[in-house]
Amino acid sequence: QVQLVESGGGLVQAGGSLRLSCAASGSIFSINAMGWYRQAPGKQRELVAVITSSGRTNYADSVKGRFTISMDNAKITVHLQMNSLKPEDTAVYYCYAVATTAYWGQGSQVTVSS
Fold it and tell me: Which residues contact 80 (CB under 8 A, 6 or more apart)?
């Protein structure tokens, strides 16, 4: 079992920055990848960014060049640095971890005002 606890998020003006963090506990040795999804009102959940245990990253086209995902060497915490935020980035952001199954955080609201 893996438990994920998110922190960060909030309200920011367009062009601003926010940082999300996700702390993993439990069977962290089994984690292969961690990342973030987001879900805006009335829309499907979409992948934002992912990082593997080997450090490979992948981003949604809509956030490339603006968001950066990182993970500490002990695979305990993953961060999502979000810069140049846009109103369309407004969503609930969910941390997830892939081990033998997928685990999800509780969700963090990010609101970007125009």
Answer: 19, 20, 21, 22, 36, 48, 49, 67, 68, 69, 93
Q: What are phi and psi of 29, to 5 degrees?
A: -65, -20
Sign of CA dihedral 98, 32, 53, 29: positive
3-class DSSP assignment, residue 87: helix
Q: Mean pLDDT over residues 95-100, rounded?
A: 94
Q: Are 53 and 33 in contact (CB under 8 A)?
A: yes
What is the band of 37 on the pLDDT scale with cuts at 50, 70, 90?
very high
Q: Are 1 and 26 in contact (CB under 8 A)?
A: yes
SS3 36: strand
The residue-averaged pLDDT of 61-89 equals 94
Distance CA 73, CA 111 (A): 30
User: At 77, which amino acid appears?
Assistant: T
